Give the backbone structure.
Amino acid sequence: MKDRVIFHVDVNSAFLSWSAVHALQHGASVDFREIPSVVGGNQATRHGIVLAKSIPSKEYGIKTGEPIIQAKQKCPGLVVVPPDYYCYERCSRAMNEILREYTDKVQIFSIDESFLDMTDTLHLFGNDPVEVATKIKDRIKNELGFTVSIGISDRNKLLAKMASELKKPDAVSTIYHNEIQSKMWPLPIRDLYMVGRATEKKLISMGITTIGDLANMDIEFVKYKLKPAWGTMLWNFSNGIEESPVKPEGSIPYIKGIGNSTTIKFDITEKKDAYKVLLSLTEMVAMRLRSVKYCCSVVSIWIRTNELSGYSHQKKLYVPTDETMKIYKSACRLFDEAWQGEPIRALGIRVSDLCSNDFVQLSLFENYSEKKRKLDRLVDGLRIEYGSHSIYRSCFLHSGFPPVTGGISEENNFVMTSIL
């Protein structure tokens, strides 16, 4: 196999780092990264989950996904920073603008991860991949204020991604094809890409505790235990086998869907209030969908009652879309069909079955408006550049729902706040 040069760039503690940089740029005297802190919701409004944590907070045993109130019991002086997804979009975009100066083959894998195929351009910046990656890492740190870890492989994206996990933060690591046995095989099986908790438990029950154990297991036995497709993929990954190309312009081959959910500060009992929350959630989901240049073919909604029971409902669209209002209307219809009248504690929306939005397939059964698509992108740009409160729908006024992620009406009426 011909040697390639693949980089995987991964932002260290992305949400917390980006929040810290934003705060410092706006006059904060403390760097959140240097104190016990987390990015998470406000417990008073029942948004109580840790989304990201600083390195000092790890000393208290704080974990991502645990309730804020539990984290504060471990560390009474813990600083809780609210998430700012529009800030995160801006930081991600700025990083990828730098990466595209080194190659046109940049694949946005998630908001805080990107792959670079440097095979044809490495020689323009130096002959040593580690030296070039270090230059990129240091440039991001000096120009944007946050750190990244970069993994390098001479084979594929999988090994580059595994390499970026070897050392953090602010580091460059390699897993070349001749380093698989020494660097990857000794790692615990949970560290293999695509191995979650359930799969880890299954593999351990098979006597597989390290990546090397899986790599040296009979593939037919693995396929028998895990089902052929899944077993083959994991066995290949454990041996460093993966052949997908780096796809530019935001292609994300492994992503299955994009979602957003919220716990409401009071129980919802009226349909009109649920609609307001659904549109607020839809605005963020649709914006993220457009940012990675995708359309969706399936919309689903999720409802959790005040007794903490939950259920969901989904539908297939006639034509893939990335339009906010089309997704929102589908979500409202799903809600009408699913809701059983109980007080609602939390709502969520998810889009899936994604495809490229390079072109739009027209249908006799769907209204298509290029003006609405352009309006969506204009609003996205304003919010990314000036913040989520720079523009929101006029019917949001006096509604009782803060315009955190968008508006609450089908109308294209917006209120513009100061952006100077």
In short: The longest helix spans residues 271-291. The first strand starts at residue 6 and ends at 11. Residues 194 and 234 are 8 Å apart (CA to CA). Residues 185-238 form a domain with the DNA polymerase; domain 1 fold (CATH 1.10.150.20).
